[in-house]
Design brief:
The structure holds two protein chains of two kinds.
Chain A (H helix, E strand, L loop, with lengths): L10 E7 L6 E11 L2 E5 L7 H8 L3 E5 L3 E8 L6 H10 L15 H7 L5 E6 L5
Antiparallel strand pairs in A: 1-2, 1-4, 2-3, 3-6, 4-5, 5-6
Helix pairs in contact in A: 2-3
Chain B lengths: L2 H4 L1 E2 L3 E5 L3 H12 L3 E5 L17 H8 L2 H7 L1 E3 L1 E5 L5 E5 L11 E3 L2 H14 L3 E3 L5 E3 L9 E3 L1 H5 L11 E4 L6 H5 L4 E3 L4 E9 L10 E5 L4 E6 L4 E8 H6 L4 H10 L2 H7 L3 E2 L4 E4 L3 E3 L3 E2 L2 E3 L5 E2 L7 H21 L2 E2 L2 H30 L2 H14 L4 H18 L7 H13 L13
Parallel strand pairs in B: 2-3, 2-11, 3-8, 5-14, 11-21
Antiparallel strand pairs in B: 1-23, 4-7, 5-6, 9-10, 12-19, 13-16, 13-17, 13-18, 14-15, 15-16, 19-22, 20-21
Classes of the chains: A alpha+beta, B alpha+beta.
Chain lengths: 129, 439
């Protein structure tokens, strides 16, 4: 969608299958956008239930924001997360208390905490990049 | 120029500031009706929020919003409430006794999750969410011009608005009451200056039916016990001097209140507190003005009343319904109301919302000043003197109307309110309400 030049929705609903209940679990998430790529960030770190659920479904999930988008969430490499975390924190004031780095901190400071904050790149379910 | 030529076509553009229950519900309803809705919220929620117990009148609104099933999946079904004024003055209300006039159940909800479910629904159905706090500015507010506008940086943060001010700004900022503060709008404050402390507990002993809410008059103030799915919410509400007498820290006050109250200690004496202790102040407030040129207040931003009868979430969701229904004629025609028409819709809404808040405040006052408990005692002694068909019918009639009032089914109904007023004045049969008042 964004690649086709439409402004992104920064607040989205993520639907993912619960790894234990098998039921669809929905939650609102702030989307980070950098270089025309979309990312979802877990401000509660690796312990967030949705992160475990996404991993258990091999990244299969649905984004809803007026339309339904079947996506694949690909965990992003730790050493490339820093600029995304910075873009995310700028966009998501509600996440700031959970991330121990100021929104205006240097990329090095973001890199230092990157392993604790999972980042997923949003791919169309058919994409294999 | 004919009036036909002055009609502006296109979706009504609404900016809602705050995605609590009123803001998110209004966003869902307006979006479904075809409005172009932008919802500003920084998606930051405290882990504890007051308003964990719903009244039955909420359930039809949850159904209309399409979220009842979702809410039921994480909530505890509430069959009724028990009010304990003294060892001999107790009443146990089951909502299904008043069905079908009253919805037969309600829910006890983990509030942050409830709020999240509404936000999820709003975003999923296409409301444009902006994860930022909106900043508002005063404007001239004469003629066709709005009294309030979004600040330039807020407008810029919402690409969907395309740099144009919305037709309507809704203040759904809850108790923060951003517009009231910005425009210096005064409020009528209720007579009680209470403070509430509450927390969640595990390992408690529950003497009641599952989900039944317990309201207990204490030596000072009152307490609530709200069963949630896997824990119990316990709160105390008392005057600020009485609270200070229990200690300085909220944790100390809550612990001492539980230990010093027989009913609470029998439930939570061995329980483990699993959250911090949240504190709320100022429970009764109605804004003197709820709308202006191009803006309106919804939910708690307009006003809130005491939590004793749990009307908070209902009042928030009902305000969203009233606003959406008021705008429906224009939305269905894909027209934008003129500033005068918009103001008339907002005025009609504000009258109803003010009347609802006032009715709840009046009803709550009957519980605080002891008149409801006195009526119950008077009825009991009257029935003890022999019960005939007429007595039973009258008893049932009064109970039904108190049920209609307190369930939200008919809180503003003239007859029910008039009946309670009449009985409170003329049917106490020598029982002194002061003896049963909440200090």
């Amino acid at each position: 969608m964004f690649a086709r030049g439409v402004a992104p929705d920064y607040l989205v609903t993520l639907d993912v299958r619960g790894r234990r209940s098998g039921r669809t679990i929905s939650l609102p998430l702030v989307m980070a956008v950098l270089d025309r790529q979309r990312y979802l960030v877990s401000n509660l770190g690796n312990k967030a239930a949705w992160v475990h659920n996404v991993k258990a479904t091999s990244g299969r999930a649905v984004l809803r924001h007026g339309r339904t988008e079947h996506v694949r969430l690909e965990e992003f490499a730790i050493d490339r997360r820093a600029p995304i975390l910075k873009a995310y924190l700028k966009r998501a004031p509600g996440a700031r208390p959970h991330i121990p780095v100021d929104k205006d901190a240097s990329l090095d400071e973001f890199a230092a905490i990157a392993s604790e904050i999972p980042v997923f790149r949003v791919l169309h379910s058919g994409d294999s990049r | 120029m004919t009036s036909q030529e002055t009609i502006e076509r296109g979706p009504l553009r609404v900016a809602i500031v705050g995605a609590g229950p009123s803001g998110a519900a209004l966003a869902i309803l307006l979006n479904r009706q075809g409005a172009d809705v932008t919802l500003f919220d920084d998606v930051r929620r405290p882990s504890l929020l007051v308003g964990e117990s719903l009244i039955p009148a909420v359930v039809p609104i949850l159904r209309r919003l399409g979220v009842e099933q979702q809410v039921a999946s994480f909530s505890c079904r509430k069959p009724g409430a028990t009010f304990v004024w003294s060892a001999s003055d107790q009443v146990r209300v089951a909502f299904d006794r008043f069905a079908p006039a009253v919805f037969p159940y309600a829910y006890n909800i983990p509030r942050p999750r409830f709020d999240e479910a509404l936000l999820v629904e709003a975003v999923a159905t296409g409301v444009g969410g902006v994860p930022a706090r909106a900043h508002l500015q005063r404007a001239r507010g004469d003629g066709a011009r709005a009294e309030l506008v979004l600040a330039p940086e807020t407008l810029a943060a919402a690409p969907a608005l395309g740099g144009r001010q919305p037709d309507l700004i809704v203040d759904a900022t809850g108790r923060a009451r951003h517009v009231a503060r910005l425009l210096d709008i005064p409020a009528r404050v209720g007579p009680r200056k209470d403070v509430a402390h509450f927390a969640h507990f595990e390992g408690f002993r529950w003497p009641e039916t599952a989900g039944q809410v317990l309201v207990n008059r204490g030596r000072a103030g009152w307490s609530w016990c709200i069963p949630l799915r896997d824990r119990l919410s316990i709160g105390i509400v008392l005057g600020q001097d009485d609270a200070a007498g229990l200690g300085r820290a909220p944790e100390e006050r809550l612990a001492r209140a539980i230990a010093g109250d027989d009913a609470l200690s029998s439930i939570a004496g061995g329980a483990r507190r699993v959250t911090h202790v949240a504190t709320y102040l100022n429970y009764q407030l109605i804004s003197e003005r709820g709308y202006g040129r191009g803006w309106v207040m919804a939910g708690d931003a307009f006003g809130f009343v005491d939590p004793m009868l749990s009307p908070g979430v209902f009042l928030a969701l009902r305000s969203a319904e009233l606003l959406a229904d008021g705008l429906a004629p224009w939305l269905s025609r894909r027209e934008i109301p003129s500033p005068d028409e918009l103001e008339r819709v907002m005025a009609a809404y504000a009258r109803v919302q003010s009347a609802m808040l006032a009715a709840w405040l009046e009803l709550v006052s009957y519980f605080y000043d002891g008149r409801v408990a006195a009526l119950m005692r008077a009825g009991r002694t009257w029935n003890a003197a022999g019960s005939g068909l007429l007595k039973r019918a009258l008893d049932s009639h009064v109970a039904r109307h108190v049920g209609l009032l307190a369930s939200g089914a008919a809180t503003t109904a003239r007859y029910s309110r008039g009946l309670l007023r009449f009985l409170g004045r003329h049917a106490l049969r020598g029982v002194d309400p002061a003896e049963l008042a909440i200090r």
